Amino acid sequence: MQKLSIEQSTSSLPVEDRYRVLIDSITDYAVYLLDVNGIVSSWSPGAQKSMGYSAVEIIGQHFSAFYRQGDRASGLPELALKTAVTQGRFEAEGWRVRKDGTEYWTHVVIDPVRGADGSVVGFAKITRDLTERQSAQQALKSSEEQFRILVQSVADYAIYMLDTKGFVTSWNLGAERIKGYKADEILGEHFSRFYLEADRKAGLPGESLAIAAKDGRFEREAWRLRKDGTTFLAHVIIDAIRNDSGELIGFAKITRDVTERSRAQKELEKTREQLFQFQKLGAIGQLTGGVAHDFNNLLMVIQSSLSMIKRRLSDDPKLVSLLNNAVQAAERGASLTQRMLAFARRQDLDQQTISIPELVRGMTDMLERAIGPSIRVLTQFPLSLPSVVTDPNQLESVLLNLAVNARDAMPLGGPLVISAQAEELDAFNNHKLKAGRYVRFSIKDGGQGMDAETLARATEPFFTTKGVGKGTGLGLAMAQGFAE
Question: Bridge partners of 195?
């Protein structure tokens, strides 16, 4: 009913009054007239709200009062009217000045008003305050610029964009540092060039985009290629980018080089394993040393008793044979306890300055008897080799033990090469030794070697691949302990 009454009341007004009522009801737009010279000739409530002038204050004034001083000096108001006349309309956005001196961002439209004869008799001017929108756009632009600078400044992550087909559309500093390509080298190229050849043939680049498009994200660690052809372990995240209507418009890709992290993790695991083995060997060594020490004391009593019995025994051949067997068994037991004590490091080293070539030459006959005629003992020593400080008896025992192991590894015979050479090691050597002068003592056979599983356990105490009664499993463990 109210709407009908308004229509009835306004329909009875003359056309001019209807337009006046319409203009006066618009408060979000400044709608007013200028004469041909730009003098304000009418003023709406919307104009007063936007610009702060009342009709009494502004009618009769030139519209250039709304412009900045610099814009007035450059003739921008006159150019706006001229454009409206010549092109039929002037439309632009720019800064304007309110009555109180504050500035606001406006959208301005100026249309020429023509008389019956077509001549310009004035101008219709509509101005809208877009300050809030402009501020929001400016804030958004500033935020986008700050974000762009942030992304571009990140050096530890490769952050870049792909289009829907996987072609690179942006490139940051981190991407250049990690992958080696400059922006002008990679923009427009397909991201599959970062994949290994086998991965490309397997279709992994397309698969990763398909997963990201379907699930919203793709994440994985895999090997990737740099520009120079080197590889690195990468942690990759691909996120699908969609517009407001949900349409896929591209992908955001973040790549981090985790090669060093992975290497450090493996090194940590290796160190933990070594610590575990060290603790295990320490426990075994402590147990073995205690048992061997007590057993050695018992054997000494047995050997002494057997020696006394032998001196008092009659010449009965059967008793003598039995006694000799007991003596030999006691001696083998003593030898075994010495190895156990050596493994447990319960024996003090009698360190002396010796010549390795002379020690080996002095053992040649014993070695040849121990390993048999099918093994050829070869020595390779430089003419001048520094003397070393070590326990010669322990070194001879280790050498003999390794030679016997070499013999067992070469059932058909072959060469056994014993060599030594002087080396100077720095603090960064791979052997975890202190920097200084060393002599590398090497024993090499021509056997078939060990498989990976056997090699991993070769120095484990009491581990042996030989048959029952043919080995104690302490030889290599003792050799390693002596070397350490």
Answer: 224
Q: Give the whole-angstrom CA distance, residue 92 versus residue 90.
A: 7
What domains appear along the chain, each with residue ranges and CATH number? 2-129 (3.30.450.20), 154-257 (3.30.450.20), 263-343 (1.10.287), 352-449 (3.30.565.10)
Q: At 473, is the secondary structure helix, strand, or coil?
A: coil
Identify whether the C-beta of residue 212 lies closer than 8 Å to the C-beta of residue 204.
no
pLDDT greater than 90 at residue 213:
yes
Predicted local confidence at residue 175, as pLDDT: 87
Neighbours of 5 (CB within 10 A): 9
Contacts 24+ apart (CB under 8 A), 423-432: none
What are the DSSP calls for 343-381, one per residue?
HTT-SPP--EEE-HHHHHHHHHHHHHHHH-TTEEEEEE-
The Cα 351–Cα 389 span in angstroms is 6
Q: Where are the alpha helices (DSSP H) in 38-115?
A: 45-51, 55-58, 69-73, 76-87
pTM above 0.70, yes or no: no
Distance (Å, rounded) from C-alpha 158 to C-alpha 171? 8
CA angle 369, 370, 376 (to 5 degrees): 75
Listed residue (22, 2, 3, 1) closest to 13, CA to CA: 22
413, 428 contact by CB (below 8 A): no
Q: Which pLDDT band holds residue 4 (cuts at 50, 70, 90)?
A: very low
420/280 Cα distance (integer angstroms): 32
Of the pLDDT bands very low, low, confident and very high (cuts 50, 70, 90), residue 377 is confident
d(CA 95, CA 17): 33
pLDDT at 426 over 80: yes
In contact, 208 and 218? CB cutoff 8 Å:
yes
pLDDT at 1 (0 to 100):
40
